[in-house]
Amino acid sequence: MGNTLRKMGMHEEALEHLSKALMIQLKALGVFWKESLEVADVRYHTGPCVREQGQVESARGLFEAYVKTFARVYGPEHRDTQEALRMSR
Questions:
Q1: Alpha carbon of 13 to those of 6, 17, 18, 50, 66: distances in Å?
Q2: Crossing angle for the helix pair 56-74 and 79-87, to the nearest 10 degrees
Q3: 80, 74 Cβ separation under 8 angstroms
Q4: What angle do CA 25, 31, 32 make, to 5 degrees?
């Protein structure tokens, strides 16, 4: 839902849904959240919403966390890793 709202340009509403999704993921995963591709994915989709609200540094941090997780799992040359790296700049 959050990603769909983001694509529609409804960034504030999207951020609400994505934040809830992130909290659910973190609670469900407990101490294993740092290893989770699901958490990384929510961060990736939250980044543009945060950036659109003028929080560029916060968005950069979200993308960088995504890059670290995806680079570890899929490698630094994976297309999604490269896209997040591009967006973090």
A1: 8, 7, 9, 11, 22
A2: 160
A3: yes
A4: 65
List, as one string, the DSSP characters of 24-45: HHHHHHGGGGGG-HHHHHHHHH
What is the predicted pLDDT for the residue at 80?
84
pLDDT at position 20 over 70: yes
Percent of the chain as helix, strand, coil, to the nearest 5:
85, 0, 15
Tokens 């700049």 -> residue? 89
Domain that holds residue 25: 2-87
58-82 tens-digit pLDDT = 988 888 888 888 898 889 999 988 9
| Residue 78 DSSP label | S
Q: Which residue has the tokens 């980044």?
A: 47
Structural domain count, the chain = 1
CATH code at 26?
A: 1.25.40.10
Residues in the chain: 89
